Amino acid sequence: MNRLLVVDDEMNIRKVIREYAEFNDFLVDEAADGEQAVEMAYNNDYDIIVMDIMMPKLDGYSACREIRKSKNTPVILLSARSEEYDKLFGFELGIDDYVIKPFSPKELMARINAVIARSRAMNARAAAAASASASEEKEQSLNFEGLHIDKAGRSVTVDGEKAELTPKEYELLCYLAEHKGIALSREQLLEDIWGYDFYGDDRTIDTHIKNLRNHLGPYRDHIITLRGVGYKFEF
């Protein structure tokens, strides 16, 4: 049974989400502010967190940042703010989706299920890579001078220093490197990395590429922007 943490300072919103989630066989916990959410996320293993942005004590952005220090639980942010900046800032923090208030509870549940499915597929791929033999691990590493991608360990080093990438940044770099020299459209990247059911738009790719480049130091320019198309990895 899936376990959900709902975080919102409005009791009525928590109640609505709880009712729909429990109808869909979820176990639901509630938090009324960001600090409580961080504590509960530390002490429990949730399949997903649905969290408001504007809350007392600690806002949703800050709470998400704190949770990400120890847990990789999928997060959907709720907000009455529909500006592009707010959405992009959330995706830069590593959230999995952004829902604007007022929202349809049925649509929110569809998004919750889609995010959980993507997260489990990613975790399954990571578990399979971790169980590979030593020889397979060697075959699963990609090396470009001082840029080393360890696919089995899902880690990246730049001139010997570990690069702190989010899961999606790692997947994006790995995908680009595996398709070295091939022009990849934003639509293709969204489809193959985020999945068919992703509700975002192709600006999500641009944001992740910008963050990824910042982590690659002297190798940032090997991710080439193809105007009007997408991106290409060249080395």
UniProtKB/TrEMBL annotation:
**Keyword Transcription regulation on this protein?**
yes
**DNA binding happens at which residues?**
139-235
* Signal peptide positions on this chain: none
Task: Supply the InterPro entries for this chain.
Answer: CheY-like_superfamily (IPR011006), OmpR/PhoB-type_DNA-bd (IPR001867), Sig_transdc_resp-reg_C-effctor (IPR016032), Sig_transdc_resp-reg_receiver (IPR001789), WalR-like (IPR039420), WH-like_DNA-bd_sf (IPR036388)
The UniProt record lists the OmpR/PhoB-type domain at 139-235
User: Which residues does the record list as 4-aspartylphosphate (modified residue)?
Assistant: 52
Q: Which residues form the Response regulatory domain?
A: 3-116
Please tell me whether the keyword Protein biosynthesis is annotated for this protein: no
Q: Which UniProt keywords apply?
A: DNA-binding, Phosphoprotein, Transcription, Transcription regulation, Two-component regulatory system
Cited PANTHER family: REGULATOR OF RPOS, TWO-COMPONENT RESPONSE REGULATOR ORR33
Outline what the protein does. May play the central regulatory role in sporulation. It may be an element of the effector pathway responsible for the activation of sporulation genes in response to nutritional stress. Spo0A may act in concert with spo0H (a sigma factor) to control the expression of some genes that are critical to the sporulation process.
**What's the name of the protein?**
Stage 0 sporulation protein A homolog
